[in-house]
Design a protein that fits this description.
The protein has about 280 residues and is an alpha/beta fold. It is built from 9 helices and 10 strands.
Length: about 280
Amino acid sequence: METRKQQGAQSILFVVLGETEQQLKLARGILTDTEMCACICTKMDTAEQALTAAMSRYSALNMVVIAAPEDGDMLTNVLSMAKRAKDRGLLSVVAAQSDGRSADECFSELSLPTNRLMTCTDCVLLTPVWREHAESETAGAEGFYRDIKTFLQFMNTVVEGDGFICLDFEDISNILKESGVAYLGAGSISGTNPPERLEILPRQILEKSQGVIMHIAISEDMGLDDVEAAAELIRSNLASDAVMVFDAGFDRRLRHEIRIDVLAAGSGRRRHGMIPGINM
């Protein structure tokens, strides 16, 4: 029995790689399909076939994410797979572990400078996800797979569009297409005493970002003014020509609290000014 509206109807495909059966077992225990995102966990030697089959099976695909917890030879193959998706007109994203390194440092062993990565993929998401309590997070492959789960859930939420402010896929594509390096941050603020400044992501990342996608969740006792105030905390850190879009909705689990997820993309093509206010 199908648990979704229609099998194969997801618009985002996550291809998550592992080098060993133990890694794959770990990934499959953490990552599962959602309403809008399909997830395939596979070894590198079967990844090409899995990608080909999935791109045929999921007829509504708009975006492919290739995620690998290792570097070196595996990332060379990941970029090849990402280029296949991009050449088919799909939004192509590579997710890789940075361990605090820059994009150039992460890919230096490939003899492939950052400005040439965009010939293979639209966007490189560098993990770990920035969180308020990073010291409690798990490192290694498990930490990477949990970061990918956070990204998957983020993308599912903004694409699904169940909130009172919604985005469409064109909004997302406009930010991520040929955008360069991206970072994801997650945090929350109190609705009672909201801060004057908010560091979901480091200020230097936001200042260099040319596009930002945000998801804002509020408790049911809060309203649109609170959403706009939260968005402004991020907007105030952006360059004047940056583009920011966001969706928003209620979360019954929150109690006079605002949860904010921020995906910031930069080091890519220049944008043409900020989109003021809210994208309805």
